[in-house]
C-alpha cells in the first residue's frame, strides 16, 4: 500500500548511505547468500524528510548486511491526498483510495521494485482512524494476499490481479511522533513483508510481530530462500 517534487533535501543521494545498525546479531541463523537487489520507489507526504531518511538508511543498512542491496529509483514523488484509508464506514469506502493508488502504481507488476509510501494513513476522526489509530504500517505483497485475505477478509487480488508491485505504507505520524530518530527495524520488517515473508514467532527474527530489538534481528535460510525465489 502505497506525485511532485518535495524539498530538495529528500532527493539527496545519501538516503541510502550507511547508517550502521548498532548491536550484534540476535543469533547466528541464516547464512544463505542473497543475490540481486531491490529498488525502492518513494512516495512521501510532509513527514520530516530527515526522519524518513534515517529509517530508510537503517533499513538499507540491514538489507545490505544480509546481501540484498536497496536502491532508490529517482526522486521521491508526492504521496496521495487524502490519506489512503478513506472516509466512510464501509470497508469498500475506506479502502477505495488505497485501491486507486495501487491500480495506478502497482500494476502491471514491476519485478524487483517495492513502492514505499510514507504518509498520514487515515483521515482524522474518521471511522478508519478509530480502527487504525495505532497503525504504524501496512504492507502488501502478491505472495501474502492469500494469508491477508484469510486474516482480514480483504483480497487485493480482486482489484489488482494475481501479481502486482509490492507496497509498504508507513505512517508518517508513527515515524515522526511515536518513534522519531529511532533507528529501529520497523521499515526493515515491513520490507520483509513486501518481499513475501509472513510473521514468525522466534523472538530473534526480523518478522516477529513485536519488534523492540536490542540486537540485530535475523532471517532464517528458509526466509532467505523465499526472498531469492
Ligand atoms: Zn508485520
What's the structural blueprint in terms of helices and strands?
Blueprint: E1 38-44, H1 49-65, E2 70-72, E3 77-78, H2 91-105, E4 113-119, H3 127-132, E5 137-140, H4 145-152, H5 157-160, E6 167-171, H6 172-178, H7 186-194, H8 221-228
Parallel strand pairs: 1-2, 1-3, 1-4, 4-6
Antiparallel strand pairs: 5-6
Helix pairs in contact: 1-7
The structure holds zinc ion (ZN).
What report would you give on this structure?
With 229 residues, this protein is of the alpha/beta class. The protein has a single domain, classed as Collagenase (Catalytic Domain) (3-Layer(aba) Sandwich), CATH 3.40.390.10. The chain contains eight helices and six strands, in the order E-H-E-E-H-E-H-E-H-H-E-H-H-H. It has helices at 49-65, 91-105, 127-132, 145-152, 157-160, 172-178, 186-194, 221-228; strands at 38-44, 70-72, 77-78, 113-119, 137-140, 167-171. Strands 1, 2, 3, 4, 5 and 6 form a six-stranded mixed sheet that branches. Helix 1 (49-65) links the parallel strand 1 (38-44) and strand 2. Residues 1-13 have low confidence and may be disordered. The structure holds zinc ion. Zinc ion binds next to helix 7.
What keywords describe this structure?
229 residues; alpha/beta; Collagenase (Catalytic Domain); six-stranded mixed β-sheet; 6 strands; globular; disordered N terminus; binds zinc ion
Give the distinct bound molecules: zinc ion
Shape: globular
Total number of strands: 6
CATH class: Alpha Beta
- Class based on secondary structure composition and strand pairing: alpha/beta
Low-pLDDT stretches are 1-13
- Give Rg in angstroms: 17 Å
Distance between the termini: 22 Å
Give the SSE order as H and E letters. EHEEHEHEHHEHHH
CATH architecture: 3-Layer(aba) Sandwich
CATH homologous group name: Collagenase (Catalytic Domain)
Largest sheet: 6 strands, mixed
Amino acid at each position: 500500500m502505497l506525485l511532485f517534487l518535495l524539498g530538495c533535501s529528500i532527493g539527496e543521494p545519501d538516503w541510502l548511505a550507511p547508517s550502521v545498525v548498532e548491536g550484534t546479531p540476535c543469533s547466528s541463523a541464516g547464512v544463505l547468500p542473497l543475490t540481486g537487489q531491490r529498488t525502492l520507489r518513494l512516495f512521501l507526504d510532509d513527514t520530516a524528510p530527515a526522519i524518513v531518511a534515517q529509517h530508510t538508511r537503517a533499513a538499507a543498512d540491514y538489507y545490505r548486511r544480509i546481501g540484498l542491496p536497496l536502491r532508490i529509483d529517482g526522486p521521491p514523488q508526492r504521496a496521495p491526498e487524502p490519506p489512503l484509508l478513506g472516509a466512510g464506514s464501509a470497508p469498500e469506502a475506506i479502502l477505495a483510495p488505497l485501491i486507486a493508488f495501487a491500480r495506478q502504481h502497482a500494476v502491471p507488476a514491476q519485478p524487483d521494485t517495492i513502492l514505499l509510501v510514507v504518509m498520514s494513513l487515515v483521515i482524522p476522526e474518521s471511522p478508519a482512524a478509530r480502527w487504525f489509530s495505532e497503525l504504524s504500517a501496512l504492507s502488501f505483497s502478491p505472495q501474502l494476499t492469500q494469508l491477508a485475505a484469510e486474516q482480514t477478509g480483504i483480497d487485493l487480488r480482486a482489484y489488482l490481479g494475481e501479481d502486482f508491485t509490492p507496497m509498504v505504507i508507513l505512517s508518517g505520524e508513527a515515524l515522526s511522533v511515536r518513534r522519531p530518530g529511532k533507528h529501529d527495524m520497523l521499515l526493515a520488517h515491513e520490507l520483509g513483508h513486501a518481499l513475501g515473508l509472513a510473521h514468525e514467532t522466534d523472538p530473534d527474527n526480523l518478522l516477529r510481530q513485536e519488534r523492540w530489538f536490542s540486537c540485530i534481528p535475523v532471517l532464517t535460510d528458509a526466509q532467505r530462500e523465499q526472498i531469492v525465489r
